[in-house]
Write a structure and sequence with these properties.
four-stranded parallel beta sheet, eight-stranded parallel beta sheet
């Protein structure tokens, strides 16, 4: 188990490496942990590939030339957001399906003060809501054939059994809302919102909901 605890305002970089036992990215203070061009393939179904704990954990590339890739299945292909993670102003997380990652968000554990870009094929499982701050931007840009999926933490039909609770299925009301905003900028195109309690969230911004 690799633990990166960054307590200073600087940046700790993790790049061009291969990991088979999971990484805990624990930003204990105001520091930023940068990850790019790594391969994560946890050998244990009990261990997420990457677990983000604490604040100011940003700059984890999950799309484009310098993206990190995930080679496992189920829980071992997850980016696990299990505490108060923040995308700070001036930083961007870009995610799409080509990295093979499944984002697993527990509760309202991600605050977006910078920018979050979710591209075609992204799978986002949650028990809570993304919070888009007044300075934050959320761009959801799926495609007709490969929409961005927002679904329950329990849903095994997308990305497999990523919470390691055995065979299970989602049910209506598993989470109340996928997105909440404090006057942030939100643009959504080609997204699917499954089993969310409030399907009408941000209807004017959803160009197409499949």
């Amino acid at each position: 188990m690799h633990v990166y605890c960054n307590t200073s305002p600087g940046t700790v970089s993790l790049s061009d490496s291969s990991f088979e036992d999971g990484v805990i990215d624990e930003a204990c203070g105001q520091g930023v942990v940068s990850m790019q061009r790594n391969e994560f393939g946890s050998e244990s179904v009990y261990v997420p590939a990457v677990s983000v704990v604490g604040s100011y954990s940003a700059d984890i590339l999950l799309s484009g030339t310098n993206k990190n890739t995930f080679t496992g299945t189920g829980n071992s292909r997850t980016l696990d957001l299990n505490s108060a993670a923040i995308i700070p102003s001036g930083y961007t997380w870009s995610i799409d399906g080509s990295s093979n990652v499944v984002v697993s968000q527990r509760g309202n554990s991600l605050e977006v003060a910078g920018e979050l870009d979710l591209g075609a094929g992204t799978i986002w499982k949650t028990t809570g809501a993304l919070t888009i701050d007044s300075s934050g931007t959320l761009n959801v840009d799926g495609s007709e054939s490969s929409p961005v999926i927002f679904t329950s933490y329990k849903d095994d039909s997308f990305g497999g059994d990523t919470n390691h609770d055995g065979a299970s299925s989602e049910s209506s009301g598993d989470y109340v809302a996928a997105i909440q905003t404090n006057d942030g900028a939100i643009d959504i195109s080609y997204a699917t919102f499954r089993v969310v309690m409030k399907q009408s969230l941000l209807p004017a911004l959803v160009k197409r909901m499949l």
